[in-house]
Amino acid sequence: AKQLASRVTTLSPSTTLAITAKAKEMKESGIDVIGLGAGEPDYNTPEPILDAAWRSMKEGKTKYTPSGGLPALKDAVIGKLERDQGLTYTRTEIMIGIGAKHVLYTLFQTILDPMDEVIIPAPYWVSYPEQVKLAGGVPVVVQATAEAEFKVTANQIEEVITSKTKALILNSPGNPTGMVYTEEELKAIAEVCEARDIWIISDEIYEKLVYGTTKHISIATLSEDAKKRTLIINGVSKSHSMTGWRIGYIAGDEAIVKAMTNLASHSTSNPVTTSQYAAIEAYNGSQDAVEMMRNSFSSRLERIYPQIQAIPGFHTVKPQGAFYLLPDVSEAMKHTGFQNVDAFAKALLEEANVAVIPGSGFGSEETIRLSYATSIELLEEAVRRIDQFVKSKW
Ligand code: PLP
């Protein structure tokens, strides 16, 4: 019989994971590789959160929970949304899932019929188009340029809306761009979405990581209508350094949340119980560790950004959030004889022993992504190696 369903044969493998696997293999064979590929904070989960998890297990809280998450965790999320964003939700408008990634997966399975279109600004997070396709939908990519700070405009969005458009994905602060949309930009986008009646999926996973005078604004806060049509996606992975715990949530339309919860009841049963107790502490406890990590990413950015800019042929828009740099390396490639960013990233790994992610997987053919969620010492050594690599081939 035929081995694979067509739904998986059209999947593109994650470029991020491919490079990370290769780097790991090289490391294991004794090569001193610096990995700037990872999309996670380099800190351990804060102590009080670990303690809460441990306590819950000792108390025997090791069984199934309701499919959409523990009521106490929903309340903690509701408290967080009220405190940080001034947004009011009820328990029926919240679902807890197994990381923001699987919440998004469940969302697309819930709202997309075959051929429904979802607008995705590029450069985008690799999983958006694949998840849309897995749900039978059609990703409609809108290109944002470096000149426009990697942000799309309301006009660009309006131009691609059709009768099939179901939703727009917004990711601010963005991965891989690090860009943050302003209130004015979001207002214009919200107006288009209202006029054309489409859902706004607002992926706010990097909400806590904004630097300098930049403020994170959720599009849901801009009007009554914007709140109704926005589905907020967030979680503890990046804010509380909890990537491995796999806790994310959606806040928004009650009917969608209810259908997603039904779907989860047949696919996951519930998010990991221990992780849910940890996440309650993450949201209800002290937020000092969140601020400490933010400050540390901010000072690493200030140190490393000028050094990256100084590499010949690298042109980088200074990010305002998240923990990625996205230099346009087209000029460097031209002078060093590389045809595309995949070949450039491969050579950087093999010859300079620095792992970066080629932008091709993000819908950004001229860029590479570097994560600065690693120590200053390693960052500076990585920049030195990249600089030497480029100069030696120039
Ligand atoms: N959204 C974006 C933009 C991300 O970069 C990531 C993680 O890399 C996620 C969602 C998923 O986060 P989680 O660990 O909660 O699944």
TrEMBL record:
**Has the keyword Iron-sulfur been applied to this entry?**
no
Query: What cofactors does this protein use?
Result: pyridoxal 5'-phosphate
Question: What superkingdom heads the lineage?
Answer: Bacteria
Which UniProt keywords are present, listed alphabetically?
Aminotransferase, Pyridoxal phosphate, Transferase
| EC number(s) reported in the record | 2.6.1.-
Q: Could you tell me which InterPro entries the record lists for this protein? A: Aminotransferase_I/II_large, AspAT/PAT-like, NHTrfase_class1_PyrdxlP-BS, PyrdxlP-dep_Trfase, PyrdxlP-dep_Trfase_major, PyrdxlP-dep_Trfase_small
Q: Which Pfam families match?
A: Aminotran_1_2
GO MF annotation list = transaminase activity
Q: Which Gene3D superfamilies match?
A: Aspartate Aminotransferase, domain 1, Type I PLP-dependent aspartate aminotransferase-like (Major domain)
The chain positions of domain Aminotransferase class I/classII large read 32-386
What is the similarity comment for this entry? Belongs to the class-I pyridoxal-phosphate-dependent aminotransferase family.
PANTHER family xrefs:
ASPARTATE AMINOTRANSFERASE
- Name of the protein: Aminotransferase
Source species, please? Sporosarcina gallistercoris
